[in-house]
Design a protein that fits this description.
This protein has 144 residues and is mainly beta. It is built from two helices and eleven strands. The strands form two sheets. Strands 6-7-8-9-4-3-10-11 form an eight-stranded mixed beta sheet. The chain has a three-stranded antiparallel beta sheet with strand order 1-2-5, with no helix packed on it. The longest helix is centred in the C-terminal third of the chain and has 8 residues. The two termini are 28 Å apart.
């Protein structure tokens, strides 16, 4: 995959990342809906991504953090901080002009998706319980 260059809404944060695969996922969990005002569209970034500028992180659960631009508030990434997937980072697709063209292949927390919209896709769909089983460190609750 090719390295992508992106930036936040105000341009204060520049980001360089390489997608692990040519696909985008959509998370419908309640935290992502609050954070992104809808589904959080992202791609898994390969290790070695970089961000320059006023990046702020927020520990949103016992096993993940979210990053955003401290000037304009643009969502930058969601990173696992514990468990088998520690370090895995889902980069906000909206930061990159050419990331949005990738195929939607996964919807997470499909049971939390509001009824008012749906993607025209036959992609893989996981419930909240599926996601917890897959990613949460053992003994963790259902926080995202």
């Amino acid at each position: 995959m090719s390295e992508l260059q992106g930036q936040c809404m105000c341009g204060a944060v520049s980001v360089t990342a390489t997608p692990v695969q040519a696909s985008v996922s959509a998370c419908h969990c309640e935290m992502c809906q609050r954070w992104a005002s809808g589904p959080y569209l992202s791609f898994q970034a390969a290790p070695g991504y970089a961000a320059l500028g006023p990046v702020q992180t927020y520990r949103s659960s016992d096993w993940a953090e979210r990053a955003f631009c401290s000037q304009c508030g643009s969502a930058l990434w969601y990173r696992m901080t514990a468990g088998d997937h520690k370090g895995q980072t889902q980069m906000s697709a909206g930061l990159f002009e050419n990331a949005g063209g990738n195929e939607l292949r996964l919807e997470l927390y499909i049971d939390k998706k509001p009824e008012g919209y749906a993607f025209n896709s036959s992609c893989r769909k996981l419930t909240g319980a599926d996601v917890i089983d897959m990613f949460a460190p053992s003994g963790e609750g259902i926080s995202q």
